[in-house]
Each structure stands twice: as structure tokens, then as C-alpha cells.
TrEMBL record:
This is Uncharacterized protein. Residues 121-131 have a biased composition (Polar residues). Residues 25-50, 64-131 are annotated as: Disordered. It comes from the Bacteria. Residues 31-43, 64-119 have a biased composition (Basic and acidic residues).
Length: 131
């Protein structure tokens, strides 16, 4: 009985070794790797199937989008700068107008002083001559 078990074990060992290292074992192993997720040797049919091509398209679109966003932000900054500059110019113009108005309009103190001086002179003269 022991000899029979040893004979069966030897036969099983030979079959397993033949399957593992015999002719055609490399092809079977390659098929097994492809199914499991090993190296895949597929042919690219066109540019839409090429992952590198698709990646380059995505990169180019991303860069174009970032460039558009950068230009929009730059345009917004320049518009804000133009608006600030226009506000500054308007404020300067208002200030110049106020300064010009102050310089051309006689001051109330001088006007009142002139009136008092002219009234005092005329009343003073009449007071002197009448006395």
C-alpha cells in the first residue's frame, strides 16, 4: 500500500513538473499574466485610442483654460486700475475746481472789511466836517 502511494506521488510530481517547465509553458504563463493584469501588448488603432495622445490633449486644454483665466484676471486688474485712475483724476479735477473757485471769489472778510472801511470813511468825513 505504501508503494502504491509513493508511485502515485511520483506520477503527480512528474505531471506537475512537466506542466510547469515543459514545452509550451511560457505561452501559458504569458496568457495567465495578461488575464491577471500583467504587461499588456495591445495595438493602438488610432490617435483616439492612444493614452499619450489623449493625455497631451488634456494637458493642452488645461493650459489653455489656465491661460484664459490668467488673461481674464489680468483684464479685471487693468479695468480696476483704470477705474481707480479715473476716480483719482475726477477727485483732482474737483479739487482744482474748488481751489480755482476760492481764488476767484473774494473772501467774505475782505468784502466786509471793504464795506466797513467805506462806511467809516464816509461817516468819519461827515462827522469831521460837521463838527
Amino acid at each position: 500500500m505504501g508503494r502504491l502511494i509513493i508511485l502515485i506521488l511520483v506520477i503527480v510530481t512528474v505531471v506537475v513538473l512537466w506542466r510547469a517547465f515543459g514545452p509550451g509553458s511560457a505561452a501559458r504563463a504569458a496568457k495567465g499574466r495578461d488575464r491577471v493584469g500583467g504587461t499588456e501588448h495591445r495595438q493602438v488603432a488610432g490617435p483616439e485610442d492612444d493614452p499619450d495622445f489623449l493625455w497631451e490633449i488634456r494637458k493642452r486644454r488645461f493650459k489653455e483654460q489656465r491661460e484664459k483665466e490668467r488673461l481674464a484676471a489680468e483684464e479685471l486688474r487693468s479695468a480696476e486700475a483704470r477705474a481707480r485712475d479715473a476716480e483719482r483724476r475726477a477727485a483732482e479735477a474737483e479739487q482744482k475746481a474748488r481751489d480755482a473757485e476760492k481764488n476767484t471769489r473774494p473772501r467774505q472778510d475782505e468784502t466786509l472789511r471793504d464795506r466797513h472801511d467805506s462806511d467809516g470813511e464816509s461817516s468819519g468825513e461827515t462827522g469831521r466836517t460837521g463838527a
